[in-house]
Specification:
By secondary structure, the chain is α/β, with parallel strands linked by helices. The protein contains 17 helices and 21 strands. It has a six-stranded parallel β-sheet, sandwiched between helices. A six-stranded parallel β-sheet has the order 7-10-11-12-13-14. A hairpin with a 3-residue loop joins strand 19 and strand 20. 38% of the residues are buried.
Length: 562
């Protein structure tokens, strides 16, 4: 009988060391989002052995204690997470709970919250965090894994004195082919450039090194996405149209080779040259979604925040984009900027109403870690929340009450102007009474508007009808009636009472929408709505449309009918 070999027997086969376990904690705002940092860093770390990677993905609504227990059940050696201003509190609570359950587990974090002085703040206030990565991680993170020691308890910021820049990013492996790149979400995120040459003092990318993925690499990424069923791409490029010739080249690529993919782009209004305009006009209908960072139309404010576009140029560029019928444009404004007054911001909102973007996104400025604005906030007289989301609470030129009023105005815009059915109503009101918006806000506040309340669409219609009643808003009331009927509410009630019964549709009426066959049905009812320059006709038949009009026609004033 053979004797058993002892642990000291040199003939005993060497026991393999098991892989260390790295668990990536991804806490997203909603199910639709996913972490791009994970596939980027995993792709950059492919050549490093000895690690078993997995991901625990959840949302802000998930129970944090349960998430911590699930993390601990995986028995990780290292847990990593990306911190944003919206997920920071949730991630930190989960990690602190994990540390209580598994004090031997190492914890490392990175992301926008770790930029600038943010890295030191996290290390000082969160003793359970061992390593904070500051900046781009594709170079420093693999080195961290190579030298990782489970027993080491040194707490560190990487790099210690500066922000990491991955200069080889343009030719680095793409995250699209990585197994952690998610394709089961409503959209995917992709970079075709990294960094930004602009000097907006509130932005974490202010003046950062600009790098570009070669067009062939972008083409390969898009081909891979298409082959995997991707149809919606949000480009993370800070300024898609810089330089212009590259933006034009990519737009042509999107239009000619990837017409089935929809792209969300951020465009700088100052850099909208003729070549870019021609290419935008040629874009496939519905293929683009454009976001324009206007931020302010006040020249003094523009200079204070480091933006070089003149307000006139920015507004003209926005008007051009809003005239393009083949895509939607959303415009951004910020409240609480240096040198900004309440009056100038109200004028900015009014100017955007005139330009007519599909949505106006009015947000309170956030003083983010690692930005020039953060280091100069005290000097500029800006008081902001010390906790995420670091929103401005008061400035030298805008009181706390005025900041709150613009938060409420943002809520009002979301409930009214930003809804497709009410968008034309508010534009009509602006033309009839340029200063109506402040009064409309006061009216909604008297009727229960607050930062969280959500009025249903019918209630919004009725409130607008009450506000416009008895005032010099004839065109607006007619537009409100039209949209009420198109939205499927009973024509004989509310704003729809302005419609009149009629016997049929004039022969010269031009069909706008719906089924013309409904006109010939015996059960069909007909209504008309008189406007200043035309008359709108409706056919109502539940066989074709249960609530909404079965068809809609238009007759210009002065044209002969039957």
């Amino acid at each position: 009988m053979k004797a058993e070999r002892s642990a000291l027997d040199p003939r005993k086969k060497k026991t393999e060391i098991p892989n260390r376990k790295l668990v990536w904690l991804s806490v997203n705002c909603s199910y639709s989002h996913s972490s791009l940092a994970l596939p980027l860093l995993h792709a950059a770390s492919v050549g490093i052995g000895g690690w078993e990677w997995s991901v625990l993905e959840t949302t802000l609504e998930a129970d944090r204690a349960e998430t911590a227990l699930e993390l601990a059940a995986r028995k990780p050696d290292l847990v990593c997470a990306t911190l944003y201003l919206f997920n920071r509190d949730a991630v930190m609570e989960i990690l602190e709970r994990l540390h209580a359950l598994m004090p031997e587990c190492r914890i490392a974090v990175g992301g926008p919250e770790c930029l600038g002085e943010g890295a030191r703040e996290i290390l000082d206030c969160c003793p359970f965090v061992g390593t904070v990565f500051r900046g781009e991680g594709e170079e420093v993170f693999p080195e961290f894994l190579r030298t990782f020691s489970s027993g080491e308890r040194r707490r560190q910021i990487v790099p210690e004195q500066e922000t990491a820049i991955f200069h080889a990013w343009a030719t680095a492996p793409s995250p699209v082919g990585d197994p952690f790149f998610r394709m089961d979400k409503p959209f995917v995120q992709l970079e075709t450039s990294r960094g930004c040459p602009m000097n907006c003092c509130y932005c974490t990318s202010c003046g950062t090194t600009l790098r570009f993925r070669p067009p062939d690499a972008v083409r390969r990424d898009l081909e891979a996405l298409r082959n995997r069923g991707g149809t919606e791409v949000r480009l993370l490029d800070r300024t898609f149209n810089f330089p212009e010739d590259r933006g034009v080249e990519l737009l042509r690529l999107f239009r000619n080779e990837f017409p089935e993919i929809r792209f969300h782009l951020e465009i700088h209004p100052r850099l909208l040259g003729e070549a870019m305009r021609r290419e935008l006009l040629a874009a496939n209908p519905g293929q683009l979604h454009i976001e324009v960072g206007i931020q302010s139309l006040n020249a003094r404010v523009q200079r204070a925040i480091g933006r070089s576009a003149s307000p006139g140029e920015a507004l003209e560029a926005l008007r051009f984009l809003c005239r393009c019928s083949n895509f939607e444009t959303h415009a951004d404004l910020l409240a609480g900027l240096p040198e900004q007054s309440a009056d100038s911001l109200f004028r900015d909102v009014a100017d955007l109403l005139d330009a007519g973007p599909a949505e106006i996104q009015l947000e309170v400025l956030k003083v983010l870690p690692g930005t020039p604005l953060r280091s100069r906030a005290k000097e500029l007289g800006i008081v902001f929340s010390p906790q995420p989301p670091y929103d401005v609470m008061r400035t030298e030129s805008m009181s706390g009450a005025e900041i709150l009023r613009f938060r409420l105005l943002s809520r009002l815009l979301d409930l009214t102007y930003n809804h497709p059915a009410l968008h034309p109503v508010l534009r009509a009101a602006r033309k009839e009474s340029p200063e109506f918006l402040s009064g409309l806000l006061d009216f909604f506040l008297r009727n229960g508007l607050d930062l969280k309340r959500l009025f249903d669409l019918k209630r919004r219609f009725l409130l607008l009808a009450d506000f416009f009643d008895g005032k010099n808003f004839d065109t607006t009331r007619t537009e409100l009636a039209l949209q009420w009927i198109l939205a499927g509410y009973p024509p004989g009630t509310g704003p729809g009472m302005a419609a009149e019964k009629t016997s049929g549709i004039p022969e010269n009426a031009r069909l706008l929408s719906g089924s013309p066959a409904s006109e010939r049905e015996r059960e069909t009812r007909f209504l008309l709505l008189r406007r200043a320059g035309d008359t709108v006709y409706f056919a109502l038949n539940r066989k074709y449309a249960f609530n909404r009009p079965a068809a809609v026609w238009l007759v210009r004033n002065g044209e002969c009918g039957k």
